[in-house]
From TrEMBL:
Gene3D superfamilies: Winged helix-like DNA-binding domain superfamily/Winged helix DNA-binding domain (1.10.10.10)
Organism superkingdom: Bacteria
Keywords, comma-separated and alphabetical: DNA-binding, Transcription, Transcription regulation
Signal peptide feature range: none
Residue ranges constituting the HTH hxlR-type domain according to the UniProt record: 15-113
Protein name: Winged helix-turn-helix transcriptional regulator
PROSITE patterns from the UniProt entry: HTH_HXLR (PS51118)
Provenance organism: Methylobacterium marchantiae
Annotated InterPro entries: ArsR-like_HTH, HTH_HxlR, WH-like_DNA-bd_sf, WH_DNA-bd_sf
Length: 128
């Protein structure tokens, strides 16, 4: 019987992981993916669900996720047009990773230093 290797020596896992990280890197991508893993969202709902994100940045991040095959964008032919965003089957494969991150956070999150959660532009209004 011949020895079989589990890993293909031609595959550089460091490079492959860099590619995987690049798909999800970006200030807001993981948060967008987390939300879309829960349910389908319209653009305005996503924007309200992510404090501090600008319309421009949400659009840019959604376009990148769509181009990478992680998010589906559906435009309904209505007036005004209705657009919905959903996670793709490919991205659903990240579900166990998100669950593991959630479990990790429940175990260790309270022991980590607290950082301000506000990111992006501050909401305009009558603040004192």
């Amino acid at each position: 019987m011949e020895k079989q290797s589990m890993a293909d020596p031609a595959i550089n896992m460091h490079e492959e992981m860099r590619r995987a990280f690049a798909l999800l890197s970006g200030k807001w991508k993981l948060e967008i993916m987390w939300l879309l893993n829960q349910r389908i969202y319209r653009f305005g709902e996503l924007r309200k669900a992510i404090p501090g994100i600008t319309q421009h940045m949400l659009t840019a991040q959604l376009r990148e996720l769509e181009a990478d095959g992680l998010v589906d964008r559906t435009v309904f032919p209505e007036v005004p047009p209705r657009v919905e965003y959903a996670i793709t089957e490919k991205a659903r494969g990240l579900g166990p990773t998100m669950e593991a991150l959630s479990a990790w956070w429940q175990t260790y999150g309270s022991s980590l230093p607290q950082r301000p959660t506000s990111r992006g532009r501050k909401a305009s209004g009558n603040e004192t």
